[in-house]
């Protein structure tokens, strides 16, 4: 009996160590106050976006919840005002799947808001997850092999990758209002246009920051410019594999966009960062049935982050003092991380910027 107790105690201790070292993640410890500052957080009616907005509100910022769904965003703003004690939290409608909506949002914001100090490009097309546990596809196996052979890969990277690849769908198929693939249009082009339209205000209010939420899966992205020109997308089909690849591609775009933005802003008072937030259990379970959630949620809560934990690297990039020289770089777990080889390609980043300009500015 005593041996069994020792084994159980050891297992619990090991879990606690692994959870806090790998899954829970590092916390942002910045004590910076934001009274008199204004922040925009896209996709902030739920998940890590809402958790990010709440933290900024607690620090005294005026927070703009830039969201598509009015009802959910107004409910979120009510929750944030109540929990933070900050009444300076408002909703402004933004649909990143519509370039017209992005332009309208920017026009309204610039007319009504005198400041912009922090822009957080957090929103992404809704994650749709269908569990695919029996096997990994050949492509997933090849990607896993490349991760295992990379000296920079961490345990957190591997856990994140395995969760994503145990899901048969990361991004649903479809098109934006302007005819672009959803992943490309929402995750990249919408934020690209938004940032550019607000850039002058950010420069006027410097020092200011632009934070774009990317993902570990940027490492498996690729940019096919001829395909983009012919299909208005970076994938050629709508299969499960194509949807997964579209998500990876859009996250590579996030990393490259941030890199080129930093190059263009060099010498100004605006800095920018991209990041991997970790795997959030609410995102894993969002699309599951009640009974599936009942089965999976306890395990997900044990091994993956809650929205507050997932917001920590975003907050670190938005608030941490002294990281200005690292503008354009990529962070994970509140620390600087190396991006994949394609994410370090300045020529690719420059070309993506130029193509994105042509696609979004008519």
From TrEMBL:
<comment type="similarity">
    <text>Belongs to the short-chain dehydrogenases/reductases (SDR) family.</text>
</comment>
<dbReference type="InterPro" id="IPR002347">
    <property type="entry name" value="SDR_fam"/>
</dbReference>
<protein>
    <submittedName>
        <fullName>Dehydrogenase/reductase 13</fullName>
    </submittedName>
</protein>
<keyword id="KW-1133">Transmembrane helix</keyword>
<dbReference type="Pfam" id="PF00106">
    <property type="entry name" value="adh_short"/>
</dbReference>
<dbReference type="InterPro" id="IPR036291">
    <property type="entry name" value="NAD(P)-bd_dom_sf"/>
</dbReference>
<keyword id="KW-0560">Oxidoreductase</keyword>
<keyword id="KW-0472">Membrane</keyword>
<feature type="transmembrane region" description="Helical">
    <location>
        <begin position="6"/>
        <end position="23"/>
    </location>
</feature>
<keyword id="KW-0812">Transmembrane</keyword>
<dbReference type="GO" id="GO:0016491">
    <property type="term" value="F:oxidoreductase activity"/>
</dbReference>
């Amino acid at each position: 009996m005593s041996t069994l107790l020792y084994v159980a105690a050891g297992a619990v201790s090991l879990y606690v160590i692994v959870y806090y070292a790998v899954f829970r993640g590092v916390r942002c410890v910045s004590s910076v106050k934001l009274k008199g500052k204004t922040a925009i957080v896209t996709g902030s009616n739920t998940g890590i976006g809402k958790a990010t907005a709440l933290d900024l509100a607690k620090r005294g910022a005026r927070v703009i919840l830039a969201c598509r769904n009015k009802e959910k965003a107004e409910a979120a703003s009510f929750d944030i005002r109540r929990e933070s004690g900050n009444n300076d939290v408002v909703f402004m409608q933004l649909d990143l799947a519509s370039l017209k909506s992005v332009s309208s949002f920017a026009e309204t914001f610039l007319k009504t808001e005198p400041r912009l100090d922090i822009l957080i490009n957090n929103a992404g097309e809704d994650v749709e997850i269908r569990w695919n546990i029996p096997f990994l596809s050949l492509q997933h196996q090849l990607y896993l092999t490349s991760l295992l052979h990379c000296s920079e890969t961490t345990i957190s990277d591997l856990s994140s990758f395995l969760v994503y690849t145990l899901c048969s769908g990361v991004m649903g198929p479809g098109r934006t209002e302007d005819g672009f693939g959803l992943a490309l249009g929402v995750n990249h082009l919408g934020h690209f246009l938004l940032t550019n339209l607000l850039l002058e205000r950010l420069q006027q209010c410097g020092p200011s920051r632009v934070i774009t939420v990317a993902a570990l899966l940027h490492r498996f992205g690729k940019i096919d410019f001829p395909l983009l020109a012919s299909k208005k997308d970076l994938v050629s089909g709508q299969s499960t594999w194509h949807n997964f690849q579209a998500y990876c591609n859009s996250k590579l775009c996030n990393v490259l966009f941030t890199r080129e933005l930093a190059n263009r802003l060099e010498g100004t008072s605006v800095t920018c960062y991209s990041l991997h937030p970790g795997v959030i259990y609410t995102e894993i379970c969002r699309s599951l049935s009640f009974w599936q959630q009942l089965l999976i949620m306890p395990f997900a809560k044990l091994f993956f982050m809650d929205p507050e934990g997932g917001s920590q690297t975003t907050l670190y990039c938005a608030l941490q003092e002294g990281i200005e020289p690292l503008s354009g770089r990529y962070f994970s777990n509140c620390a600087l991380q190396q991006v994949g080889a394609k994410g370090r390609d300045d020529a690719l980043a420059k070309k993506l910027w130029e193509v994105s300009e042509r696609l979004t500015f008519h």
